[in-house]
Amino acid sequence: MSLHARDADLVELMDDPACDPVQLRRTLRRFRTLNPLVSGWGRVYRTHIRPALAAASGPARILDVGCGGGDVLRRVVAAARRDGFAVEGVGVDPDARSIAVAEEAAPVAGVTYRRIDSAALLREGARFDVVISNHVLHHLPADGVPGFLGECAALASRIAVLSDIRRSRAAYAAYAVGITPLAPGSFLRTDGLRSIRRSYTAAELAAVVPDGWVVERARPFRLLAVHRGDAA
Ligand SMILES: C[S@@+](CC[C@H](N)C(=O)[O-])C[C@H]1O[C@@H](n2cnc3c(N)ncnc32)[C@H](O)[C@@H]1O
User: What local confidence, expressed as pLDDT, does residue 220 receive?
Assistant: First the structure.
């Protein structure tokens, strides 16, 4: 199996609307453990989000697009509050099963979830200071990436920062070994490895992002797509 080219035809088990609901729920719940280990949002908060919040004069609203179980949003909101920022968080996802898992997590004041996608939210005229997103880009068809990024940019007045996997053999090998304790009874092994095969290199992502977006490499095995808004 080669990781030289993106395997955009691979379908993740969790993207099948008829997938096993018990395994899906377990998968979404275990993202609470997995995301802090692999997604690097602590560093993204310090390098991108905290400076954007510091530049805002009053309370700020943070949107997580494709929030899944909502753990990334809750952590970012908690980090911002530890730094003294007044923030509210909204997590959106069109998948009712994701929103159900987000809503059953321990509630965080000022953090809410909605079943809606980015396009519909934009049609409502919604706008947020900061837009974040984790592991959505590699799920989209390649021709859907520019439109999705356009929606995220339009929803963000200060910064939109989207994080995803940077495809490499090393990422694949590390995940194949590292996921073992968390994988049983979930889609984490199959879908994680498929995610890596579906994900982008920095050059590939840079080739599909619209004007105004910058692709940054982050450690370990991460890519960021960043857009600074009018208010930045
Ligand atoms: C792999 S999950 C990532 C969940 C979560 N962000 C995490 O990292 O655990 C990708 C999610 O993106 C959602 N999604 C896909 N397209 C979307 C869109 N246009 N607007 C909002 N959510 C979207 C899907 O429903 C899915 O729940």
Answer: 83
